[in-house]
From TrEMBL:
Residues 142-207 form the HTH luxR-type domain. GO terms for molecular function: DNA binding. The keyword NADP does not apply. The modification 4-aspartylphosphate is found at D54. It comes from the Bacteria. InterPro entries: CheY-like_superfamily (IPR011006), NreC/VraR/RcsB-like_REC (IPR058245), Sig_transdc_resp-reg_C-effctor (IPR016032), Sig_transdc_resp-reg_receiver (IPR001789), Tscrpt_reg_LuxR_C (IPR000792), WalR-like (IPR039420). Keywords: DNA-binding, Phosphoprotein, Transcription, Transcription regulation. It holds the Pfam family GerE. This is LuxR family transcriptional regulator.
Amino acid sequence: MIRILIADDHGIFREGLKQVIAGTANMTVAGEAADGLEVLGKIREHDYDLVILDISLPGRSGLEILAEVKALRPKLPILVLSMYPEEQYAMRALKSGASGYLTKGSSFQELVEALQKIAMGKKYVSAAMAEVLASRLASDTGRPPHERLSDREFQVMRMIATGATPKRIADELMVGIKTINTYRVRILQKMEMKCNADLTRYAIEHRLM
């Protein structure tokens, strides 16, 4: 029996996942978590065969939690389940150690297929994402500017692009405003841009919002 930990801050969504998994013969939900700290606590206290991890957890980025979970349990398979399109976060999730990435708009059948494949020690990406990966491998062009950013810088960049103020970003990420301003300067430098409007335009053009 494959023991699964579900990490998502929406209780209704967790219930939906539990129903899907309950209908799958060789899987069971062995734990639930609503935020990053709870995820790490559960991982330290219990043994799981697989984790379903939402990328948008309260307080800390799901990518940060992903990296910490892999540090604690390097061989633990993790399926990142997100509301964000694959082109925004899939590559980052896979590079951080995820075994697969799936959007929340995917069918239940695809979810079960992904879980079963990952439980066997394999990787899972959708057909659309596989095409993107193949295209990038075949391309001789450099990486797009946003891929030069760290995971936290990318998170801050997206928030700036939506028009969020430094105070709002700082409050949401639980850091100081000075830290956010430092991130902003670094982001603009790495992306070779001059102002927030440039970031917003870029984010819209590349479907990062």
